[in-house]
Specification:
The chain is mainly beta. Helix content is 8%, strand content 54%. The protein has one domain (5-86, 98-244): Outer membrane phospholipase (ompla), Chain C (Beta Barrel), CATH 2.40.230. The chain has a 12-stranded antiparallel beta barrel with strand order 1-2-3-4-5-6-7-8-10-11-12-13. It is globular and about 65 Å long.
Length: 245
């Protein structure tokens, strides 16, 4: 997602420090029956230095890494919020279901770049005891210039552990109803694609756009509580960048 853009900034301008600030509307669809999409104002912060970083809503600290002329890598501890779930009574179809809450995840990340091609591996788990989940995500992307536009397209592959899929898409025995049988989904794989687009307006101000889609794992898509197989999200923001030596 948003996670690798600032890493690219770091690899290309490690000697300089940048602080990029902005805000804009963030929209995310929900796959649950009768549940409206999430629309919230989102701050946008990108900051990189030799140890600490902030990348949109994700932050972390490097504990190893190296920068070369062609190949660079960095390993870090990292954490990020997860905006997802629903409340009881959100829709008639979900009546009698218990709340599924947003959460906060933490773990480790390994980022690699060769030329303009980059890959990141992350391993995350819930750190506020919503569920005992594990997510393993691989992101593969590149950077392209088209006139004044800079594009960062990427492909996403995420393994979602069984406790994660069960928490967000399962139906407990006490939640079962005549029209809704208990359901314990299995672990699964989610596929997706994402693109960041940056357009300079002035030397310090730029327009920033993000679009992303991800599939639901097979069992999640077959759950009674869902009626969509894809999750879409996007952000439109103005960014202001400060840079110093």
């Amino acid at each position: 997602m948003r996670h690798l853009l600032a890493f690219i900034f770091l690899l290309s301008t490690l000697a300089a420090q940048k602080l990029t600030l902005g805000a804009g509307p963030y929209i995310q669809t929900q796959p649950y029956k009768g549940v409206d999409e999430i629309v919230v104002p989102s701050p946008v912060i990108f900051y990189e230095e030799s140890i600490f970083y902030v990348r949109w809503t994700r932050f972390g600290a490097y504990f190893a890494g190296s920068k070369g002329d062609e190949f660079s890598w960095g390993a870090s501890i990292t954490a990020q919020p997860r905006t997802f779930g629903y409340k009881p009574g959100t829709s008639a179809e979900l009546s009698g279901m218990q709340e599924r809450k947003s959460s906060f995840e933490g773990g480790v990340a390994l980022s690699l770049q060769y030329g303009t091609t980059y890959v990141e591996f992350t391993a995350l788990t819930d750190i506020i005891a919503r569920h005992e989940n594990f997510l393993y995500k691989t992101t593969l992307g590149d950077q392209y210039k088209i006139a004044d536009l800079t594009l960062y397209p990427s492909l996403l592959l995420t393994y979602q552990s069984q406790p994660f899929v069960e928490y967000y898409y399962g139906i407990k025995a006490e939640e079962a109803a005549p029209s809704r049988a208990a359901f314990t989904p299995k672990e699964g794989i989610s596929y997706g694609a994402e693109c960041y687009i940056s357009y300079p307006i002035t030397k310090s101000v730029s327009a920033f756009f993000n679009a992303k889609f991800e599939t639901l794992p097979t069992d999640a898509a077959n759950s009674f509580v869902t009626d969509e197989k894809l999750i879409f999200s996007g952000l439109l923001s103005l960014l202001y960048t400060l840079e110093w030596e």
